[in-house]
Amino acid sequence: MNNESWIYLTNLSLLFGLTNLSLLLGWLSIYVALPKRGSIGSSNFLCYGFGFISLLIAGAQVFREYSFNPELVLFCIFSFFSIVGATLLVVSKNPARGALAFALTISSTGGIFLLLAAPFVMAANIIVYAGAIVVTFLFLLMLVKQHHADLADTECREPFLASLAGFALMATIVSILTAAFPSNSLTVNRGEVERVLSETKVALDISNLSELKVKVINGDSYVVSRLKNAFGGSGYWVERIEVEVQKNGTVLLNKSENIDEIKSALNLMLDIGTEYLKNKALLRPEGPVASNAGADPSLPLAKIRKDKTGRPAMPADNTSFLGKLLFSDQLLAVELVGLLLLVATIGAIVIVRKLPTKVSL
Amino acid sequence: MMVLDLKAYLVLGAVLFALGMIAFISRRNMITMFLGAELMLQGVAINFLAFSRFRGNLQGQSFVLFILSVAACEAAIAMALIVILYRAKRSLDVSKWQDLREEDLEPNEDLEIMAIDDNQIQPMPILPVAGRRPVKEGDASHV
């Protein structure tokens, strides 16, 4: 590749953004790989190349955006295999291979489900999909065995428009998500909270009013606003500081000249900060939780107990809580699903009941 | 730098959903179309689980279990339908059913595929009644 085309490509990527470039390459790869009339498969290398470059760009984006930890590596591996499996399903000329590629997707999404703290759903998913549905359809393929290559497998309806529609949908969702999550809105700054608290503790030993003010109250070192920022700027904990420490604006630490008042307010702030840190480390939610289902859906996000990465923590007994939830809150829905399964079984038997020995068209 | 957040999982769900949609609207083999629909359900399930994870709540997981049950029903019905459709036209090609289209719609360009090749038609395999061994001519009576 010569220099000019490199510059052109770089400009293109700057124009579109790397995410859109990756989507564009993915679209090209799917379009080239979709079985079309007259295509014999000579374009295989092209579509593999486009697909892998697209996935590489997407992976580089992910690694650039998030901090490196085992979860990120596992996420990348599992999503790579699930996307590859899905792509093979979309482009495979042999439906049996498509079914096996679908099984690959299902097992990789099982890994994603585990990362999302859903072990029971992972097991159920693999049993139902990979164990039952894919095997059933392989049996079906065996029953309806075709003796020659079928047009249905070697030609697509409107490959260009279909892949364009799919990738337009994908690009729309991705760009909306990129706009909706611009920064780390879910991450709570635990380190900053600890820093503010330790500085406050040191400052409480100072007996000189002006020295104390310079240290923790005046200007940028104002601990109350720093702590409020570290709590995320709004929500339950910030409200507690506003009500209990600042007494809804009646206590202004930076205007106050009474050292005892300042020190008692700082002590209150220390208590709230310590409780916050303790609350984040709890394994189980305090107080009544709706049907053991984890946090109440009506709670604001700031009130939800967080784990040490700053994300809301799942209930510790995931599977048993899920069972309790299903058989208490959603008992009627569970019964209805049972009924639905029964009706579907009977319906399937009724549909294929008469097996003619002779074909009548 | 931050830990993996909701967005990454939602993007993965969207990618799987869109790929499933492409499989559903462009492939002609009924089995591939069905698997594409299941792929879309997987994308939706990832969305539900991600929201459930980042809300600290189990409601999303129970929703995914309902999706699973409905997908199982759907697979049973779809298999039965595909079997009878195959029996009628001897093909898995969904384009052969374009005579079911609305009256004012143009037919698909591939009119030649509507012609059914009678030579290719073979009867469905006939399974023996359970518990009885099928009798073959010249078979040694060893049972």
What assembly state would you assign to the polypeptide chains in this entry? heterodimer
The largest β sheet of chain A comes out as:
none
In CATH, the homologous superfamily of the largest domain in chain A goes by the name NADH-ubiquinone/plastoquinone oxidoreductase chain 6, subunit NuoJ
Give the overall form of chain B. flat
Number of helices of chain B: 3
SSE order of chain A: HHHHHHHHHHHHHHH
What is the CATH fold-level name of chain B?
A: Helix Hairpins
Spatial shape of chain A:
elongated
Distance between the termini of chain A: 59 Å
Q: How many structural domains of chain B?
A: 1
Spans of chain A of at least 5 consecutive residues whose pLDDT stays below 50 are 183-187, 281-291
Short overview:
By secondary structure, chain A is mainly α.
Chart the SSEs and their pairings.
The complex is a heterodimer of chains A (about 350) and B (about 140).
Chain A: H1 3-16, H2 18-33, H3 44-65, H4 70-91, H5 95-115, H6 119-143, H7 151-154, H8 159-180, H9 190-203, H10 209-217, H11 223-230, H12 236-245, H13 259-280, H14 318-328, H15 331-351
Helix pairs in contact in A: 1-2, 2-3, 2-8, 4-5, 5-6, 9-11, 9-13, 12-13
Chain B: H1 6-26, H2 30-53, H3 59-89
Helix pairs in contact in B: 1-2, 2-3
Structure, explained:
Chain A is built from 15 helices and no strands. Chain A folds into three domains: about 5-180, NADH-ubiquinone/plastoquinone oxidoreductase chain 6, subunit NuoJ (Four Helix Bundle (Hemerythrin (Met), subunit A), Up-down Bundle); about 190-280; about 290-350, no CATH class. Chain A is mainly alpha-helical and about 350 residues long. The termini of chain A are far apart. Chain B has one domain (about 5-100, about 110-120): Orthogonal Bundle (Helix Hairpins). Chain B contains three helices and no strands. Chain B has about 140 residues and is mainly α. The interface between A and B is large, with 112 and 89 residues.
